[in-house]
Specification:
The protein is mainly α. Helices cover about 80% and strands about 5% of the residues. It has eleven helices and four strands, in the order H-H-H-E-H-E-H-H-H-H-H-E-H-E-H. The strands form two sheets. Strands 1-4 form a two-stranded antiparallel sheet. The longest helix is centred in the middle third of the chain and has 33 residues. The relative contact order is 0.23.
Length: about 325
């Protein structure tokens, strides 16, 4: 048991470190290619912070623990919307742009609602996965089209990111990062699966809790640091972007490779997925700011949900 607990912790650490290296390498390569910083932020960095969820979900599905794969995404998104935003808002109130309230949050809410509908039959089939991938492609097209159009009207001084990292080092970062993600995911999933079976805990619950919170550590670190530095846009954008990526890209690609069962994921879990986004949206309407008391409310609700999960074991 002790060995498997060490495997869980070590696997999380390896996955997070690998995601960091992969992102650094990809950003450096993109910089060498002259890709605008804003595009890198919306694609490379956003995908980088979602790589732990993707690798863990994919490995879980391939190993046969498909409920853990779906639970990982559902739990991660609930954790992102309530716990991460809650902690960030308690540190400093988060200012929300009107475009975020009108476009970004509704899109993330729509993705959550779509997942609930697709999972009514108890599985994420390949057809469901293709629908998610198609919507992800639409999301990226709309986002990048708007960004590149805006970029043309801005000074060239902000278009190119610095590229001080040598090409060979950037490529090495990408390769090492991918290796750590794959290896760490296997170690983590094997350890988590053993612990779950030993205590009689379902794969879905493990995915909703330990796995979800472990793979959300990059988002937690990025959002809290951004909030402390006063970069509210990055803080809330990181959460929303991650939630959309998790549902549309992570579950889409994973489901296309290996159809997944949602056995063990209850209606309460799916309801919390949607409620977390609705609350985030409602709180954003209040003076376009998520205030400290609202952040506290989100955190308390998340802990209440967590207590319910543990009590239902």
């Amino acid at each position: 048991m002790l060995l498997n607990i060490i495997m869980i912790i070590g696997g999380i650490a390896l996955v997070l470190w690998g995601a960091d290296r992969l992102t650094d390498g990809a950003v450096a390569i993109a910089g060498r290619l002259g890709v605008p910083q804003i595009v890198i932020g919306l694609t490379v960095v956003a995908m980088g912070t979602s790589m732990p969820e993707f690798c863990v979900s994919l490995v879980s599905a391939i190993n046969g623990t498909t409920a853990m794969a779906v639970g990982n995404v559902v739990g991660s998104n609930i954790f992102n919307s309530m716990m991460i935003v809650g902690i960030a808002a308690m540190i400093t109130p988060i200012t929300i742009l009107s475009t975020t309230v009108k476009k970004d949050i509704p899109f993330a809410l729509m993705a959550s609602a779509l997942l609930v509908v697709l999972c009514i039959d108890g599985e994420v089939a390949r057809v469901d996965a293709l629908i998610l991938i198609a919507l992800f492609a639409v999301f990226m097209y709309i986002t990048l089209k708007g960004v590149t159009t805006k970029a043309k009207d801005e000074d060239d001084t902000d278009k190119q990111p610095t590229a001080d990292t040598p090409v060979w080092k950037a490529i090495a970062f990408v390769i090492i990062g991918l290796a750590c993600l794959v290896g760490g995911s296997n170690i983590f999933v094997n350890g988590a699966t053993f612990v779950a079976s030993t205590f009689g805990i379902s794969d879905a619950v493990i995915g909703l809790t330990i796995v979800a919170m472990g793979t959300s550590l990059p988002e937690l670190a990025t959002t809290v640091v951004s909030a402390r530095k006063g970069n509210s846009g990055i803080a809330i954008g990181n959460v929303l972007g991650s939630n959309v990526f998790n549902i549309l890209m992570v579950l889409g690609l994973t489901g296309a490779i290996c159809p997944m069962s949602t056995h063990g994921i209850t209606n309460i879990d799916m309801l919390m997925l949607v409620v977390s986004m609705v609350l985030l949206w409602l709180f954003s309407f209040t003076k376009l700011t998520i205030q400290r008391w609202e952040g506290t409310a989100l955190t308390i609700i998340f802990f209440a949900y967590l207590v319910w999960l543990i009590a239902s074991l």
